[in-house]
Amino acid sequence: MDYGKTLNLLQTDFPMRGNLPQAEPKMQARWEAEDIYAKVQESRKGREKFILHDGPPYANGDIHIGHALNKVLKDIIVRFKTLQGYDAPYVPGWDTHGLPIEQVITNSGKVDRKKMTVPEFRQYCAEYALQSVEKQKSQFQRLGIRGDFKNPYITLQPEYEAQQIRVFGTMVQRGYIYKGLKPVYWSPSSESALAEAEIEYKEKTSTSIYVAFPVKDGKGKLPQDAAIVIWTTTPWTLSLIHI
């Protein structure tokens, strides 16, 4: 007997299975067609603002689980604040400057940086970064992130760079910028300075010895049998010491 037929269950058009791999893209396509983000922002126009400044991801490939966790948590916060009645816009952005993009292109073997002019290589890097932006944009939208993906900020955009120069100019005028000397880490392979956070140290065990050098003449200040003890991890250099 089919006992399910003996139960007084509610009748609904909802499918028994979520079938999310097929259902989610359709739902997201509807959100995009209806421009849900713009409608939500219009409904909160004039309300008190809540701004979440989202640090941009780096545009050098596909997103990973760290990107997903970061974006989903921030999306929850922005939506929650919207439901509380705030005008909570979310403008996504991308960091498109820096050494990792150069390294990806150089390591791909598709171009020889040494045979290109600096402007040519920078243009190649910019094209790669913009491709990564579009790829990550679609992946974030696939996660269901709601935001103004039609108008993101991208750090290589001239207007963004111009604003950074204005800020730097203001810092110069206020005396915050100075020129000085400071030791930095340098990578011969990357031909670039490295941040301290990028340095990885290798554990190494070195042979070391203690050596006692007898004092020949203590000048009356040291006992007759006194010795000076040294410690070294380069014992082979002891042969160079003239006693």
| Biggest sheet features | 2 strands, parallel
What's the order of the H and E elements? HHHEHHEHEEEE
Look at the structure and give the CATH class of the domain at 32-95 and 136-193. Answer: Alpha Beta
The low-confidence parts are none
The CATH superfamily of the domain at 32-95 and 136-193 is known as HUPs
Structural class category: mainly alpha
Q: From the 3D coordinates, which CATH architecture of the domain at 32-95 and 136-193 would you assign?
A: 3-Layer(aba) Sandwich
Report the total helices: 6
Radius of gyration computed on alpha carbons? 32 Å
Give the CA-based shape. elongated
Summarize the structure.
By secondary structure, the chain is mainly α. It has helices at about 20-35, 35-45, 65-85, 100-110, 120-140, 160-175; strands spanning about 95, 155, 185, 190-195, 210-215, 225-230. The chain contains six helices and six strands; from the N terminus they run αααβααβαββββ.
Description:
- The protein is mostly helical and 243 residues long.
- The protein has a domain at 32-95 and 136-193: 3-Layer(aba) Sandwich (Rossmann fold).
- It contains 6 helices and 6 strands; from the N terminus they run αααβααβαββββ.
- It has helices spanning 20-34, 36-43, 65-83, 99-108, 118-142, 158-173; strands at residues 93-94, 153-154, 185-187, 192-194, 209-214, 227-232.
- The strands form 3 sheets. The protein has a two-stranded parallel ribbon. It has a two-stranded antiparallel ribbon with strand order 3-4.
- β3 (185-187) and β4 form a beta hairpin.
- It is elongated.
- The chain starts with 19 loop residues before the first helix and ends in an 11-residue tail after the last strand.
- The model has no long low-confidence stretch (mean pLDDT 90).
